[in-house]
């Protein structure tokens, strides 16, 4: 459907009317009129989305396509005008040029209005309005996609399913929760993405022999997105056999709730609510389930949204079943594809393994694929044909696509954009959270949420997609926060399928653009993927047809291009240019300066020998500039980018080449890692009042004191990294105790005397010390930091032979890294020291002997060791015992 394109256009035009009121003066009323017409079409499309699939004929699809195109063109007309008007407003010929731009946009807006009027008339002449009305009223033969889904998914709890894969650990964990005898009613939740097998697992538990006689009464009710309170209550009442309630069609809903409550109050009950989508469903039913009835009563929910589960019972931990392993996937696929056979024919097993890999352990996909293959001939040729078209078979099959689509359709439009955007990244790509959030901000996907920053809203959106099981947490930081995320292959394929229809993005893999309708497509985004084992080569003319409409361009997997000659004036609306994964560049052309709409520029992998042109100073709308490791001088033009929020660099050029001016960057939130210079004294640092993360290197002791005195006035600072020059030391007293919000601190350089514990930031969570040459008694001070969860003692930070971890020391420490402590040999860990330590990493500490107390600790779950004499203490007995208690054990021997 075109609803996403229209909703995006409406939101964007609304924001532009507010933010660019001056530049739009003279055409504001016409832009508002277009916005209002599109808003009306958006409402109409929501109704059209419920029309029966077979009623969506070719005329209907063409009509929807026209709406999408006019929404795109409305965006283009207004944004093109704003770009030209912004440039003209700075020109000496402003009085001549501005009327020309205004005349052009008026003509463009009038053409858009004419097209909208024509599309509106077609709605009646094509009979589209009557078709939608008929579907809404349930006309003859009208069967909606949701109705078919109800047929597919309506569970029959008394019927046991054959060919299941027994998830022993998941079953046991949930049985434990369901069998517990708390005095108050509890809610047990099963959470996961569509197709994970939540309903199947719930049915298995509902019929489990261990629970069969534990409950006086039971009910299993399918809720779904189309929740009907009366129908749900009626089903529960019928299943638990509430007597003397009369005709349920006549009884008031509140009376039904009251009768059900009274009946359950004296009984131990189990009620399963399958496929719950909204918190309001629980709110409307909760009163029917007594909280203080018989001990052990339970309500079990299955849902795709973790927030729904926590809303129903904040004390419970929602259970998310795992994906199937490769062997389990192969077994389930075999049972469905080869019914009655207990093994694969020898010539088909490898093909079967390749097929199930694409399913990513998702039971629904395996069942559908197995059912498809079961109807094919059992020949290698037939199976190879299925394998070659497996994405089509999985995503374009009604059942898989429709079930995945339920989660997508339930998203608000801004989350739909965020979700589809993930399709830009290559398959199985580990997506950095911070980079992703900055891209979403640059794309303008996010709504305003109170006083929260755009980055705060982006993190909220990311967490919501995680809670809705649309994306998966990849890796965590050492402190347990999300570091990377990933998306299941089938959800990615689904997103690309939707993006193809919406012209949201296209993927180029070296041959042609996937997910695009034609070379003249108005696709808003293009990601260029090449084979990871080969360098991809790109010819400039390829991008020309896409340039006028393109909003973002991404390169992945080491795409090779000798120069950035593809940058031309046609890329006038480009907002994101991400070149971090390219190679072979030796020159960044001055043409980069014509991309004045850029919000995000990432070039961190290509600048080792690259000239950075002063024309980047023209990028006045830039919000994120990632220059990475630059061996060329950075031109003194950064100050012109007054909207900059994140400046990421690592200046490797000769010292004192350029003294940067930075005193205009009041919106800057991230600055790392920058070399110390006159910009500190000249007001650059003092004016960065929005700083959250800061890293400065090559400081003198005098400048350290100056930096600290300036930063005391910054109330948002959360992370600070300071490095002193080789011949300098940190001041004895730095006065860090005033930094209430500082959670992370990194000090690189010699510390003659460690500050007293009361002089550290009071809420410090992570501390990294590198090259500190600490006094032997300094560890006693560190042990007393009350909230410290992670400590890194890096190269030459501690140069003594012995280290003692005192009893009751480091009360909150969870992560400890010891790196390149060459002199350290003996480490004594007293009883009750580091009682919460979970992750221990030891790297290049060749003389260190691991304390016996840590070898046997039950709290340490992750152990990483890297150095030669590791064999000295790794006895076979200890290694065997460790396997049973460590979640992760890594040994690297040089």
Automatic annotation (TrEMBL):
Could you tell me which SUPFAM superfamilies the record lists for this protein?
L domain-like, P-loop containing nucleoside triphosphate hydrolases
Report the InterPro entries cross-referenced here: Apaf_helical (IPR042197), Disease_R_plants (IPR044974), LRR_dom_sf (IPR032675), LRR_R13L4/SHOC2-like (IPR055414), NB-ARC (IPR002182), P-loop_NTPase (IPR027417), RX-like_CC (IPR038005), Rx_N (IPR041118)
Can you tell which superkingdom this protein's organism belongs to? Answer: Eukaryota
In this chain the NB-ARC domain maps to 170-339
Cited Gene3D superfamilies: 1.20.5.4130, Helical domain of apoptotic protease-activating factors, P-loop containing nucleotide triphosphate hydrolases, Ribonuclease Inhibitor, Winged helix-like DNA-binding domain superfamily/Winged helix DNA-binding domain
Keywords for this protein: Nucleotide-binding, Plant defense, Repeat
Domain Disease resistance protein winged helix: from-to ranges = 424-494
Pfam hit, one: NB-ARC
Show the stretches that span the lipid bilayer. Answer: none
Q: Which GO terms describe its molecular function?
A: ADP binding
Q: Which GO terms describe its biological process?
A: defense response to other organism
Residue ranges constituting the Disease resistance R13L4/SHOC-2-like LRR domain according to the UniProt record: 549-843
Q: Which residues form the Disease resistance N-terminal domain?
A: 5-92
Q: What is this protein called?
A: PREDICTED: disease resistance
Organism, as annotated: Prunus dulcis
């Amino acid at each position: 459907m075109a609803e996403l394109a229209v909703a995006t256009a409406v939101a964007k035009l609304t924001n532009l009317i507010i933010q660019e009121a001056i530049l739009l003066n003279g055409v504001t009323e016409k832009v508002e009129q277009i916005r209002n017409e599109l808003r009306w079409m958006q409402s109409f499309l929501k109704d059209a989305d419920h029309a029966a699939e077979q009623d969506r004929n070719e005329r209907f699809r063409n009509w929807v396509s026209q709406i999408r195109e006019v929404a795109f063109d409305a965006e283009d007309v207004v944004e093109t005008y704003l770009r030209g008007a912004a440039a003209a407003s700075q020109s000496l010929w402003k009085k001549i040029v501005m009327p020309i731009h205004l005349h052009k946009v008026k003509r463009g807006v009038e053409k858009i209005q004419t097209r909208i009027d024509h599309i509106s008339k077609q709605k009646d002449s094509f009979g589209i309005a009557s078709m939608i009305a008929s579907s809404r009223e349930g006309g003859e033969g009208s069967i909606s996609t949701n109705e078919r889904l109800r047929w597919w998914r309506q569970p029959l709890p008394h019927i046991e399913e054959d060919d299941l894969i027994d998830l022993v650990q998941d079953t046991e964990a949930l049985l434990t929760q369901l069998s517990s005898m708390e005095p108050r009613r509890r809610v047990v939740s099963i959470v996961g993405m569509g197709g994970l097998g939540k309903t199947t697992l719930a049915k298995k538990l509902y019929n489990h022999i261990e629970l069969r006689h534990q409950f006086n009464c039971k009910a299993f009710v399918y809720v779904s997105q189309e929740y009907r309170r009366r129908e749900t209550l009626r089903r529960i009442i019928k299943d638990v056999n509430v007597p003397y309630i009369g005709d349920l069609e006549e009884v008031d809903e509140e009376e039904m709730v009251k009768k059900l409550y009274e009946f359950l109050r004296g009984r131990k009950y189990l009620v399963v609510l399958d496929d719950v989508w909204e918190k309001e469903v629980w709110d409307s039913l909760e009163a029917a389930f007594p909280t203080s009835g018989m001990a052990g009563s339970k309500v079990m929910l299955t849902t795709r949204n973790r927030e729904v589960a926590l809303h129903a019972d904040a004390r419970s931990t929602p259970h998310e079943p795992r994906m199937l392993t490769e062997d389990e996937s192969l077994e389930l696929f075999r049972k469905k594809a080869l019914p009655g056979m207990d093994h694969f024919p020898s010539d088909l097993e490898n093909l079967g393994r390749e097929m199930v890999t694409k399913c990513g352990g998702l039971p629904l996909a395996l069942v559908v694929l197995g059912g498809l293959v079961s109807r094919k001939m059992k020949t290698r040729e037939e199976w190879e044909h299925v394998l070659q078209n497996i994405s089509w078979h999985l995503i374009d099959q009604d059942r898989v696509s429709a079930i995945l689509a339920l989660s997508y359709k339930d998203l608000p439009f801004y989350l739909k954009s965020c979700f589809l955007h993930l399709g830009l990244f290559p398959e199985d790509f580990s997506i950095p959270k911070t980079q992703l959030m900055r891209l979403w901000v640059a794309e303008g996907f996010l709504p305003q949420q109170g006083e929260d920053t755009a980055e705060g809203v982006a993190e909220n959106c990311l967490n919501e997609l995680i809670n809705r099981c649309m994306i998966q947490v990849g890796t965590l930081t050492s402190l347990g926060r999300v570091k990377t995320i990933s998306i299941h292959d089938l959800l990615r394929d689904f997103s690309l399928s939707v993006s193809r229809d919406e012209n949201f993005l296209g993927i180029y893999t070296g041959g042609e653009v996937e997910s695009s309708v034609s070379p003249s497509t108005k696709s808003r985004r293009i990601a260029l993927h090449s084979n990871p084992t080969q360098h991809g080569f790109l010819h400039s003319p390829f991008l020309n047809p896409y340039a006028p409409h393109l909003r973002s361009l991404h390169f992945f997997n080491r795409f090779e291009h000798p120069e950035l000659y593809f940058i031309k004036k046609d890329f006038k609306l480009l907002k994101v240019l991400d070149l971090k994964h390219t190679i072979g560049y030796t020159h960044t052309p001055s043409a980069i300066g014509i991309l004045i709409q850029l919000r995000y520029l990432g070039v961190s992998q290509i600048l080792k020998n690259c000239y950075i042109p002063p024309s980047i100073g023209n990028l006045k709308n830039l919000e994120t500039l990632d220059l990475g490791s630059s061996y060329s001088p950075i031109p003194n033009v950064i100050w012109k980018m007054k909207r900059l929020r994140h400046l990421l660099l690592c200046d490797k050029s000769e010292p004192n080449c350029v003294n940067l001016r930075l005193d205009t960057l009041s919106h800057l939130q991230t600055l790392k890692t920058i070399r110390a210079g006159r910009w500190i004294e000249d007001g650059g640092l003092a004016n960065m009042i929005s700083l959250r993360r800061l890293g400065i290197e090559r400081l003198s002791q005098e400048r350290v004191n100056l930096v600290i005195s300036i930063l005391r006035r910054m109330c948002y600072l959360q992370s600070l990294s300071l490095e002193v020059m080789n011949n300098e030391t940190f001041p004895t007293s730095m006065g860090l105790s005033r930094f209430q919000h500082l959670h992370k601190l990194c000090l690189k350089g010699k510390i003659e005397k460690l500050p007293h514990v009361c002089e550290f930031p009071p809420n410090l969570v992570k501390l990294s010390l590198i090259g500190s040459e600490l006094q032997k008694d300094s560890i006693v001070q560190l042990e007393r930091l009350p909230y410290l969860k992670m400590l890194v003692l890096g190269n030459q930070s501690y140069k003594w032979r012995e280290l003692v971890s005192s009893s009751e020391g480091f009360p909150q420490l969870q992560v400890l890294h010891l790196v390149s402590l060459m002199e350290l040999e003996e480490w004594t860990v007293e009883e009750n020291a580091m009682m919460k330590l979970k992750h221990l990493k030891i790297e290049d500490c060749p003389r260190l002997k691991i304390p016996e107390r840590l070898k046997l600790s039950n709290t340490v779950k992750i152990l990483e060791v890297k150095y030669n004499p590791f064999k000295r203490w790794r006895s076979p007995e200890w290694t065997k015992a460790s396997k049973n208690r460590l979640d992760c054990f890594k040994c690297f021997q040089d």
